[in-house]
Predict the structure of Transcriptional regulator, TetR family.
Amino acid sequence: MTDRSVPPPADAGGAAEQTGVGGAAGAEPVTARGEAAGAEPVTARGEQTRKLILDTALRLFRERGYAQTTMRAVAKEAGVAVGNAYYYFGSKEHLIQEFYAETLVEHRGRAARVLATETDFAERLRGVLHAGVDTMTPSHEFAATFFKTAAEPTSPLSPFSAESSPTREASIALFREALTGSTAKVDPELRDELPELLWLAYMGVILYWVYDRSADQTKTRALINGVVPLIDRLVGLSRLRVLRPVTRDVLGLIRTLRQ
Amino acid sequence: MTDRSVPPPADAGGAAEQTGVGGAAGAEPVTARGEAAGAEPVTARGEQTRKLILDTALRLFRERGYAQTTMRAVAKEAGVAVGNAYYYFGSKEHLIQEFYAETLVEHRGRAARVLATETDFAERLRGVLHAGVDTMTPSHEFAATFFKTAAEPTSPLSPFSAESSPTREASIALFREALTGSTAKVDPELRDELPELLWLAYMGVILYWVYDRSADQTKTRALINGVVPLIDRLVGLSRLRVLRPVTRDVLGLIRTLRQ
DNA sequence: CTCGGAAGTTGAACGTGTTCGACACGGCGG
DNA sequence: CCGCCGTGTCGAACACGTTCAACTTCCGAG
């Protein structure tokens, strides 16, 4: 109903049953490449230290920004030695991977509200997108400074990387659900590919959001509200005879380009 | 004619007369903000030293990659002190701005070939896009390593930053020329905005190119060849009565979002 | 010719992320 | 009880980008 936000879930953890992916995303510590990823705690004490360092780091990131937060400061604030942080986290960047996971869980929780009640495709999509922005809003400044890290193709933090795969798939699942749970009639050929395309559009929204300097990122909200009807109309039009070849061309191109 | 490349210009410097922007892009040393930009050489000796440092840096970047190239290494290889490099270039990142400028000049030279002979819009656009990729191809690996730096919103290297403005405008001018020099009939409302949109699409192509791991970036070529007809068709369709409101919506949205 | 000052140049020093060899803890087999 | 060894912890040390106060070069006004 509102033009903007989706309220946060009362309990983010309890909202996971909505998606088919479930808890797989939040708890995948083992990296694809065994190198430089930091050790996994075995003891209870280790678990505690790890959590202490992580919480301290994320708090400082949000308070002072990513670049302004020193690993030494994190260590000092957490009351441990610098080397200890590197025992659990392969690098400063690796601390951010946790941030992704946390963000996804909250996004899922917020999106569940809309997905449970609404049936109109455009409205569902709008809800999921706004929910994503809602989730990230408190970290806007912080996100902008570390965004560059995620952009590097070879970085494990890249949304396209193998290391981000679980989180990415879970995120795509959100858009799949927005589609399948709706009353929208879609070209069957398009139906399978669309969720990934919507996720891609979401990445575009995030890209815009990161650069958005308007107060409270109002423009990003306008982007969402403006682009959703367009997508909705386009998806509807895709079944028209006239546009059939275009649809087919687009799908063909996408299949070719998928890496 | 060819499916791919546009041959390099015999003399990159001589091809500038094609655009309306002319030499403004290559020689705009003064930054919008006076801070941290490095000094401008006044004497001939200074000019020489600056060029020496820049050439050495770009060579090492291409040879070893951006991150692997130390400022100390650049200085040593150029036979000067570290501080000297910082006298001319505000930071390591500022060395890349120069790379942008060089790339633009060569892009312009390559594109001029197609723009001088072809009149079909799609073909002109295709030519400009391929020319851009041709220009960057030798630096593909290097580009991937520094790309993350350019992605950060606050970085002067961001293609959207004020500091990149001259280069960006010159680049947009290329697409404006691709349009105005063609026989394409475009919705007059769209005509003014389209070049910037095409440039945005070009940024998208570059984004894909940076991530493209296929041999010789074949997929990026496929992306261009596939997406150009789509754009061409869309532009043509924009004049249709049925799509008029959509066109208007898109334009309205874009005007709102322009920062 | 002289010499003042702008332009150019130097390299040590600072704060950063990260590494690494050494040390402390704690439970378990003997 | 002892010694062992894997887990956890430490902090000095390294290489990096960057800064800056001091120095050198050299042109042109007097």
Chain B touches chain A at residues 144-145, 147-155, 158, 160, 208, 210-214, 219, 222-223, 226-227, 229-230, 233, 246, 249-250, 252-253, 256-257, 259 (CB under 8 Å).
